Amino acid sequence: MSKSKIAYIAFDTVPAPKGAAIHIEAFSIALAAAFDHIQLITVSPTATGINSQEIYPQVIQTTLPAIGDTLIHRVLYFRRLLMTWLQGKRFEVIQIRSIYEGFSIARNKQRYCDRLIFEVNGLPSIELKYRYPAVAEDRELLHKLHSQEQICLAAADLIITPSSITSQYLQNRGVPANKIRVIPNGVDLNIFTNDKGQITNDKFQMIYFGTLSPWQGVNLAVEALALINREFPAALKVIGQTRDYQIKALKQLAQKLGVADKLTILPAMSQTRLVEHIHTSDVILAPLMPSDRNLVQGCCPLKILEGMATGIPVIASDLAVVRELGEDGVHFLLVKPGSAKSIKDVVLRWQNDQERATQLAVNARQRIEDYYTWQRAGEALINAYTELGIKRAIKV
Question: Minimal CA–CA distance to 265: which of 279, 286, 282, 248?
């Protein structure tokens, strides 16, 4: 049986214009730089076979198909291929991101690795019901998800999470505090620059970027758009991965509120192109909802960090996961969660105090430079590995 250093396994597509893929890329590059080559195993969105190639220096990516009509079918298909790929292999470390790829490994940890690291960004027992509402009523499925999560949490030698809120939640589920390392998300400052030009919009331009998941509160942004237009002309641009039914619902809401002509919805795009759109905006909206996903499980909102780096003021919901990232009135302005009127009120205040809005954006950029870069996150990850006894590669 051959033994390699590190396998980083994720039931995700990489590369892709979404936060998870950006996170995985950054961590892969950091691990490869410190420990030489690593194996990155991800989902192939189109291929039917197993393919491998070097996608970054020392990062060998193997993509496995995940075929099926439902999420469960796709997970099971991926798991079967993953177990086949793992035959005859053993690693010093395997790092997983979910039960989808991690459950079978956790149950047979000694067969596959010396150390297992569980990177907890979100848990399906909490998040899945937002994508599939019927899950909330399926107690048997929720019990299975929770049980598989517990098996992975117990088997892991180290748990990495981006938020202290998530850390506390995991401790409430019985995970020892000394087993958890909080490593927040980061920003690539070479992409998310603050060298914007002069904004010359004929309307006040707001932007939201990210998914249209229910916990993101995008509907509130549309409602706020309608309220603001009672005071002065404004427009809203929504950019991100969307499904047809989500676009339809958002457009129907805008039509109902009389602002359909002021809403633009664009598909997910490269970070470079996204920054161009951000730099033509007057304000960034992050109206996170007060759901158990945000309040109980926790998260580290990448869109807020990226927005803070661009020199454009950020308006976000007043939640503990946001307060972790900065100070209200210094780095961003916080609004009452679930309130479109609060968003409108802050926008009106900023319209009359451009100097303060500019200073907030300057402070936010400095905050990101000091605390929230992918370089800093990568260094924290490497330190966590070395604490487990994994030796860094000797550079000649």
Answer: 248
DSSP 14-70: SS-SSHHHHHHHHHHHHHHHHHS-EEEEEEESS-SS-EEEEEETTEEEEEEE---SS
Q: Say if residues 284 and 278 touch (Cβ distance below 8 Å).
A: yes
Residues 77-91: pLDDT tens digits? Answer: 999 999 999 999 999
Contact status, residue 12 vs residue 20, Cβ threshold 8 Å = yes
Where are the chain's structural domains? Answer: 2-186+373-387, 204-371
**Helix orientation angle between 218-228 and 340-351, rounded to the nearest 10 degrees:** 50
Contacts of 57 (CB under 8 A, 6+ apart): 29, 32, 33
Torsion 309-315-321-323 (CA) sign? positive
Domains 2-186+373-387 and 204-371 share a fold: yes
Amino acid making up residue 325: L
CATH architecture of 2-186+373-387: 3-Layer(aba) Sandwich (3.40)
What is the C-alpha to C-alpha distance for residues 27 and 279, in angstroms, rounded to an integer?
27
The whole-angstrom separation of Cα 343 and Cα 268 is: 24
Q: With contact defined as beta carbons under 8 Å apart, do 265 and 241 qualify?
A: no
Buried b (16+ CB within 10 A) or exposed e, 319-339: bebbebbbeeeebbbbbebeb
Beta-bridge partners for 4: 91
Mean pLDDT of the chain: 94
pLDDT tens, residue by residue, 174-196: 999 999 999 999 999 999 999 87
Q: What token pair was written down for 30?
A: 């950091």
Architecture of the domain delimited by 204-371? 3-Layer(aba) Sandwich (3.40)
Strands 59-65 and 51-56: antiparallel
Q: Write the CB contacts of 44 (distance below 8 Å, at least 6 apart in sequence).
A: 13, 51, 63, 64, 65, 66
Q: Is the peptide bond before 301 cis (omega within 30 degrees of 0)?
A: no
The angle that helices 99-107 and 139-155 make with each other, rounded to 10 degrees, is 60
Q: Look up the pTM and report it.
A: 0.94
In the three-class reduction of DSSP (H, G, I as helix; E, B as strand; rest coil), residue 174 is classed as: coil
Is residue 341 left, alpha or beta, with left meaning phi > 0 and alpha meaning psi from -120 to 50?
alpha
